[in-house]
Write a structure and sequence with these properties.
By secondary structure, the protein is α+β, with helices and mostly antiparallel strands. It has helices at residues 12-21, 25-34, 76-91, 101-106, 108-121; strands at residues 45-50, 53-59, 64-69, 95-100. Helix content is 44%, strand content 20%. The two termini are 14 Å apart. The model has no long low-confidence stretch (mean pLDDT 91).
Length: 128
C-alpha cells in the first residue's frame, strides 16, 4: 500500500526539530507509549509538519494526528483556531484525535488504550 504524501511548509522543519528536542512533560509521557511501534505496531512521528501546522504526533499509515491540548487551548480564540486547524487537516484526509493535558498526566496508558480502541474501531489491523 502506498502512503499518501502530505505537503508541508518547509519553513516549519526547524521549529519541528526544536519541538521534538523539547517535548512538554505530557508529550513525553504519551510518547513512551507511542514510540518504537508499541501501539499496535504502528509508527508514530513526533512534532510532524503538515501543511501549515505541526501536529504533536502523526502516524503516516493511518493518516492519524494526535494532539494534546494544554491550558492554552481553554479560551474562545484558541477554540476557533483549533477548529480551523482541524478542518484544514481533515480536508487533507487526516483524522485528528485530541486529548487534554490533564488526561495524559493522570493516566497516559489510558490515553494510549483510547488511541488503540479508535484504531481498532476504524477497522485497521495490527502492523507487524
Amino acid at each position: 500500500m502506498r502512503r499518501k504524501i502530505i505537503p508541508y511548509n518547509p519553513r516549519l522543519k526547524t521549529l519541528a526539530r526544536q519541538l521534538r528536542n523539547n517535548l512538554t512533560r505530557t508529550e513525553a509521557m504519551l510518547w513512551k507509549h507511542l514510540q518504537n511501534r508499541q501501539l499496535l505496531g504502528y509508527d508514530f512521528d513526533r512534532q510532524r509538519p503538515i501543511d501549515e501546522y505541526i501536529v504533536d504526533f502523526f502516524c503516516k499509515d493511518l493518516l492519524l494526528a494526535i494532539e494534546i491540548d494544554g491550558a492554552s487551548h481553554d479560551h474562545p480564540d484558541a477554540y476557533a483556531a483549533d477548529w480551523q486547524r482541524q478542518q484544514r487537516l481533515e480536508s487533507l484526509g487526516i483524522r485528528l484525535l485530541r486529548f487534554t493535558d490533564h488526561n495524559v498526566q493522570r493516566d497516559p496508558a489510558a490515553v494510549a488504550r483510547a488511541i488503540e480502541d479508535w484504531i481498532s474501531g476504524q477497522g485497521f489491523v495490527q502492523q507487524s
